[in-house]
Amino acid sequence: MEKMEENKSKQNNVKRPKGGMIAMPFIFSNEVCEKLAVVGFYANMISYLTTQLHMPLTKAANTLTNFGGTASLTPLLGAFVADAYAGRFWTLTVAFIIYQIAMTSLTLSAIIPQLRPPPCTGEQVCQQATSGQLALLYGSLLLGALGSGGIRPCVAAFGADQFDETDPKQPTKTWKYFNWYYFVMGASILAAVTVIVYIQDNIGWGWGLGIPTISMFLSIIAFVLGYPLYSHMDPVGSPFTRLLQVSVAAFRKRNLTMVSDPNLLYQNEELDASISIDGRLVHSKQMAFLDKAAIVTEEDNVKAPNLWRLNSVHRVEELKSLIRMGPIWASGILLITAYAQQGTFSLQQAKTMDRHLTNSFQIPAGSMSVFTMLAMLSSIALYDRFLIRIARRFTGLDRGITFLHRMGIGFLISVLATLVAGFIEVKRKQAAVAHGLEDKPHSIIPMSVFWLVPQYGLHGIAEAFMSIGHLEFFYDQSPESMRSSATALFWTAISVGNYVSTLLVSLVHKYSAKPDGSNWLPDNNLNKGKLELFYWLITGLQVVNLLYYICCAKLYTYKPIQTPTKDAESEEAASKV
Questions:
Q1: Is pTM beyond 0.85 here?
Q2: Number of domains the chain is built from
Q3: I need a labelling partner for 433 at 20 to 30 A (CA). Which of 96, 313, 509, 524 fits?
């Protein structure tokens, strides 16, 4: 046994030779350039499709919606490849290159006149893109979706891999990294939706798409240059196969009587060595029916087990950990649903309001999201610099508060955001009525657009708490060999949240329609609608969701892990979870 522990310790040292803060300049340089590229490239893409390729608005919107839906599903594929076969570094490298090809091809269409329709003139109807020009567009968007599938689930997890929580020589922890990661990402997005969009609208699409393309190339260079300094987690086979093996083994042994002592369940540290580098999962009492997969019978060969009949406790607990994460994952969907309204109805509110900063300059309605980003960045900085230190005095936790508490605060602030949005909409409509503009949907109400800043800002603060906590939760609580797959769940929640928003808007629009033509969400005149009731409907749903989350958080059992640095007392406590 001592020899086995010694070999395992040596293996740990081999697996994590580098990493730490020395790798961060390369990873954050990559993140700055990559986010500036991706967001800058697609934030204003609907304008490119309509003004340069002369697509009808509905066709352009559907094209981007389909691209967004595909890009939200491909992370599941990218995560599987990273965890099972290629590892996160090579998955990211290939994904960056694929994305670079996609961006380069679309940039060429903006530079080379033959790759897009001729400009419109006043005397003739605009010529739409040819089938060949559309093929270039769709091919580029598809490559972009494939590239996203490798980048989204791996980039945050790869950065967190550089920190070994059990190494006393690394004072920086993963929770700090996630704060920094989201801050850097937010700052890059802020630059993209302001500077890059301005260049696209006012200087030209050649530069507007070319600068993000060059930025992506620089991000690849920065990422690859750091290769010798990174800590690499090797792929250890398909995690989904292991989950299926545990399920099948538990089903095949469903009629067996459960053992009285959990210590009698099958353990095999040598078998699990490659998937338990950060620590071995120990038995937990929940979902005892899965423990039957670890019951040893006379038919089982313990030295060379058939994994479709017999699995170790560690592998059983991997499946339990993912199942326990499910309810917490589901709780994040409605927050994304609420957040999604900023790009739809909040933007429509802004279009009807006075957006002038000076007599000659007004804020574009689409730029109101800047206030969300500023609030998010300020909240992250305040949280990291001050709030953690204050909370640490009361909780004794190095991270200040747990990620479950952090998520709960985000949920609560999101409730306030939609509640406030409803009251502001009431005031906006009152101003429209007071100035006789309720029947003039295209007229500007003499009410400052800065009245919308509270709802935008509260959404930003909520994201600083909830989204970072959610991402940290997936990374920390997932089995180490499935972290890319678990991080993909973060993006899947965002995707589902947007789809729920679409469904909710469609249902409200359909069932709030009256014979006189009135509607909560009218097609043309927001002044005649009842948007405040829609906001308060979302508020009510979020209150129910918050109560649901509190119950899930109270009942949640942290994954029971026995790390190499734990003492005997800690190990005994973990085994009793």
A1: no
A2: 3
A3: 509
Nearest one of 215, 211, 163, 174 to 35, comparing CA atoms = 215
Contact, 211 vs 196, CB < 8 A?
A: yes
pLDDT digits (tens, 9 = 90+) for 487-517: 778 778 877 887 788 788 888 888 888 887 7
Beta bridge partners of 281: 561
| pLDDT digit string, tens, across residues 338-376 | 887 776 788 778 888 998 888 887 887 777 888 988 998
19 is written with which tokens?
Answer: 């990493």
Residue 99 host element (H or E): helix 87-111
Residue numbers of the domain that contains 475: 332-560
Which residue among 322, 340, 362 closes a domain?
322
DSSP letter for 362, please. Answer: B
Q: Which residue, chain included where needed, has tokens 């906590």?
A: 469
The residue ranking higher by pLDDT, 327 or 505, is 327
Of 543, 554, 549, nearest to 413 by C-alpha is: 543
SS3 readout for 385-424 = HHHHHHHHHHHCCCCCCCHHHHHHHHHHHHHHHHHHHHHH
CA atoms within 13 A on the CB side of 485: 22
Mean pLDDT for the stretch of residues 404-423:
94
Residues 90 and 113 in one domain: yes
